[in-house]
Write a structure and sequence with these properties.
This protein is of the alpha/beta class. The chain is 41% helix and 14% strand. The protein contains 17 helices and 16 strands. A 7-stranded mixed β-sheet has the order 7-6-8-9-10-14-15, sandwiched between helices. A 3-stranded mixed β-sheet has the order 1-3-2. Helix 2 links the parallel strand 2 and strand 3. Helix 2 crosses helix 13 and helix 6 runs parallel beside helix 8. It is globular and about 60 Å long.
Length: 442
């Protein structure tokens, strides 16, 4: 397991200079570890994701830290392996005064660490991935699937297909295939797809794919033989690009395929170019955006100073943006915690949890942070660890991703029922007493 540390050298130097000259000492540093995968089958997608996280932390330091508190960011290489992710977590959690939070970057790692985080009192920030039922903060007080869960994504995809047909009621009698990565990640789609199939009357075809590198010829022949009207693609890494190539080979229209947000980035379509034209994917609020103020700041204050983590050409790509947003939401959790526990001070994991449970990122705040037009407002609570259930669809036009729908809002009644059922079952299995309203106010 390789560990890479990105230090706040400039700010630390200033802190030391101030202390030596008799000035006021600067607060200790805030430590953010990340479980990355820059190697292995999923490296093509994992690298820009990790680079976005690293560059945003560098931007925060260039802006003066979190109210003056500089960031130390450390990566540990997992190659997308759950066992290695757990080992990395154990190695990093107590370094530099203790982790403020962890970005696990994989759903498998999130499942494995969900029982460790409450013991260590360290939040897991899983923006757009992880356990969907961890939206319930009363049962999962240390999990934060901020900005949207897989269940939000799946329901919005079904709604988008329904809107294309002229209404959800038009899906009755249709055939929808779910081609999914046979892992905790891919299986997250099942509860919503099965519930919607039963409710709306469409026929659901389940087609698991064993691994990203797996041959999918038989999968897409099954899609063709079933005359599926639509395909929902829960792919990651090479699986998504392979799926699109096999769809082309079997003559299945790419505009009939709707990918989850982890199957809707440049590595999934760039090699095919025009041949992938029309392919749809849900967005995690954002698409690619090179004109966003936050991206311009990164280009000027990080890459412009020769401190970029990866190539300048990727800055603003979909997965890079995903990393930037993930890092930003964690930073804002720390900032919110400082408002309660001490501005200009480093926060403990427990204090950061409070901050993440009290995020109130209005449109005005998001605009001020440089995320104008990219994110919907996010407001969390003790029991709601998601904060937003809105998403859009973007479509590959042969050269770039473009928004093709307005915002959809996931069905609250459906998701609340699934969360309550699944989180409740988890609480019973693990002998967890959910937090009460009174406990949530403390």
């Amino acid at each position: 397991m390789k560990v890479r540390t990105w230090t706040a050298a400039a700010l630390t130097g200033l802190a030391c200079a101030g202390a030596l000259s008799g000035g006021v000492a600067v607060a200790q540093e805030q430590y953010f570890p990340t479980l990355t995968y820059r190697t292995g089958l999923y490296a093509t997608n994992g690298i820009p994701f990790a680079n976005g996280i690293a560059d945003y932390y560098k931007l925060v330091n260039a802006r003066g830290g979190i109210n003056g508190v500089p960031i130390i960011h450390e990566e540990c290489e997992t190659a997308y392996d759950t066992a290695r992710s757990v080992e990395c977590y154990e190695r990093l959690k107590g370094r530099h005064g203790g982790a403020a939070l962890f970005h696990t970057l994989t759903t498998g790692a999130t499942f494995a660490l969900s029982e460790k985080a409450p013991v260590d009192r360290i939040p897991l920030v899983t923006v757009g991935y992880g356990r969907s039922e961890s939206a319930d903060g009363s049962v999962f007080p240390w999990n934060f699937p901020l900005a949207g869960t897989y269940w939000v994504a799946t329901d919005v995809i079904v709604q988008a297909i329904g809107a294309r047909e002229g209404g959800l009621e038009k899906l009755r009698g249709k055939k929808i295939a779910l081609v999914y990565h046979d892992s905790p990640f891919g299986k997250e789609a099942l509860p919503v797809m099965q519930a919607r199939s039963k409710e709306l009357g469409f026929e659901l075809q389940l087609l698991p794919v064993i691994a990203a590198s797996a041959d999918q010829k038989s999968t897409w022949l099954q899609v063709r033989h079933a005359h599926s009207d639509y395909v929902v693609l829960y792919g990651w890494g090479a699986m998504s690009a392979t799926a699109l190539r096999e769809a082309q080979a079997t003559g299945y229209a790419r505009d009939r395929i709707y990918g989850v947000w982890w199957a809707g980035a440049e590595p999934d379509v760039r090699a095919m170019g025009e041949d992938a034209k029309g392919y749809n994917a849900i967005t995690l609020h954002h698409s690619a955006d090179r004109g966003a103020p936050v991206i311009q700041d990164i280009l000027e204050k990080v890459h412009g100073k020769g401190q970029g983590t990866g190539p300048r050409t990727e800055v603003g790509d979909v997965l890079y943006m995903r990393g930037v947003i993930s890092a930003a939401l964690g930073v804002e959790g720390v900032r919110a915690a400082q408002e309660k526990f001490g501005v200009g001070k480093a926060m403990t994991g427990e204090q950061v949890r409070w901050g993440l449970e009290n995020l109130n990122l209005s449109r005005e705040k998001l605009d001020a942070l440089g995320f104008s037009g990219m994110l919907s407002p996010i407001k969390t609570s003790c029991k709601d660890h998601v904060g937003s259930r809105s998403a859009r669809i973007h479509t590959w036009d042969g050269r770039q991703w473009v928004y093709s729908t307005d915002w959809f809002e996931a069905d609250k009644n459906l998701l609340d029922r699934l969360v309550q059922e699944t989180a409740g079952r988890y609480a019973r299995e693990k002998n967890i007493t959910p937090r009460t309203d009174a406990e949530c106010t403390n």
